[in-house]
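The freezer alarm interrupted the setup, so I double-checked each line after restarting. Inputs confirmed:
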Amino acid sequence: MSTLEIKDLHVSIETEQGTKEILKGVSLTIRTGETHAIMGPNGSGKSTLASTIAGHPRYNVTSGTITLDGEDVLAMSVDERARAGVFLAMQYPVEVPGVTMTNFLRTAKTAIDGEAPKLRTWTKDVKDAMQQLRIDADFAQRNVNEGFSGGEKKRVEILQLELFKPRFAVLDETDSGLDVDALKVVSEGVNRAHSTGNMGTLLITHYTRILRYIKPDFVHVFVDGQVVEEGGPELADRLEEEGYDRYAKGAGAAAIAPAQA
Amino acid sequence: MTDITTEKARIGAPSAQPFINGFTEEGESLSPINVAESKAPLAGEAVKSHSHGGGVGIPDSSRAGRLTSYKLADFKPLTGMEEDWRFTPLKRLRGLHTAVLNGTAPAVSVIAPDSVKVETVGRDDQRIGSAAIPEDRVSANAWENFSEATVITVPAEVQAEGEINVVLTGQGTDASAQHLVIVAQKFSKSVVVLDHQGSAVVSENVEIVVEDGAELSVISLQEWNDDAVHASSQQAKIGRDAKFKHIVVSLGGDLVRVTPSARFTAPGGEVELLGLYFADAGQHLEQRLFVDHAVANCKSNVLYKGALQGRNAHAVWVGDVLIRKEAEGTDSYEANRNLLLTDGARADSVPNLEIETGLIKGAGHASATGRLDDEHLFYLMARGIPEDVARRLVVRGFLHEIIQHIKVPAIEERLTASVERELAATNN
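Predicted 3D structure, all chains:
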């Protein structure tokens, strides 16, 4: 079993108005086999957490740590983190012109495993995974994300999740912009990957909708760069009914004891 | 990529604006116009009388106003201030614009299917001058000095099996002149590869006749040695319903300046002008093309892509597209993309679109020069791909769009390998 541990993480970005602190001391521990949902209103820092874990250069960690089984993740380059087993399903997957999906998937798989996948089984794995996610076979010959619809891009992210078999998957609003059918397909993909028991999942979402299909073990509520409440799946149900209003600044913040890590 | 500009001409858009007399649109001062009678550069008697610019009343900022002549003396000595030479380091032309070009021209060897006729002819052959007329001093210098020409003819209705391989091997660095004529007769179909290798200082004129209904691809490869200097004017005359594809690939040489042009002479023609270049430290790779929509209902598409790396790597792309008053129903698009892989490299990209009629299907241009997109790299690296591999993947993909148009497997493989070599050098 592996553990991804985030301790008192402070993250800032440079803006035209100067340095802006977005994460103000976040602590989370995720073990393989667990699913954690991070929920919160827009601008609460959910996506910043996701990008920081993956190592996006825009985000500066000013203090705190991220470790994977004790190894310092923050000291690793973006590609090293991925090879260590951290996967980020992006909110806005980037189009990479001129690089075919086939070529991209094989190159990434080779990098992650440290050796080229066996051609025969790999081709079949890709084909099967695509079929399960209802991705047309001709996508393999298309350039990475180029001309894909929003839903197609998200499905392709989950395709990679299933093929690369990471130890920890961070899903950054994978559910946003999906219709119900696509949401089901994508959720099934995540559940398949999770069912191996070798993956921990950090599911970042604005809505509770996806939690009908992916059952979280823990729910963390993010407001203004901090975790303000933590609980089990029942917390998600409460959020569904009440929304985030009660966490609005000033109103309820004082009433809620800051979460203990 | 940054600075993307795309414009689509509107139906009924006003024709070219007159600019301040003696100045171009960009405010540069130009020499006084050459006045003559002819309208199209290859039209009628005016050509035979040798010296002329565009028609009366054409502003000299228009591509139609460019001086064309078979006589070197008609072109003034170059100063580097001229619009079409302003990016070229004249000192590195090694005399192509000043010397008598009497060095040994690159040796020509042609491997062609039996159905294709290959001849070596003298200056008096009547096919000389059938498609081209020099548009600059270096080209005129070659025209005045070449001693013999290679003429390749694909006879009418012949579908040449396999490509026609023309290997031009440099014979040293004495300034020389070269002349080639490619004639694709009516309804023929063929692919011609001009494969430039070795060391040479050469000004080359390539005349290309694409007769009615013919389909011709010309692929000009510049994989010269590092010391080579090459100026190549490649002018094509496009017949009725003819299809012409032209691909320029410039990788090797100290200074390479290719000036392809396509002139429609009858309706229904289609041209595709593609280019790929990879400029390394100190290399100057220049391409200036011209598409002359002189008649109605023709179609042109231009796409040049380049990568640059190293100190003083310099690429120049100037794309002139002229849609004349007569050219109603024209459909045209031109684009140039540059990737700057390191500091110290420079790309100049100038798309020029002149539209003299509003009755067209479309006319657009785009140009973008930028660095590798950090978000592309992040996406690939977030999938475990190391940075150097990710960079190569993106650049290779960027250039592959041109390579895959070549459709000659052996050449595609060779160029893919060449690009890999260039990319490997980035990491040194």
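Quick read of the result. The mean pLDDT of chain A is 92.
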